[in-house]
What we know:
Layout: H1 2-17, H2 20-31
Amino acid sequence: MALSIEFERALSIVALHFPNKAMLNDKPMLAEPGNTE
């Protein structure tokens, strides 16, 4: 239980530092590594 709560808090902190746009941009890059070139 405690671990899940701390994990959720960590996700919230990460979400604040990295806006949804940044996270969305990472997904396609991971899906298509060729775009990184």
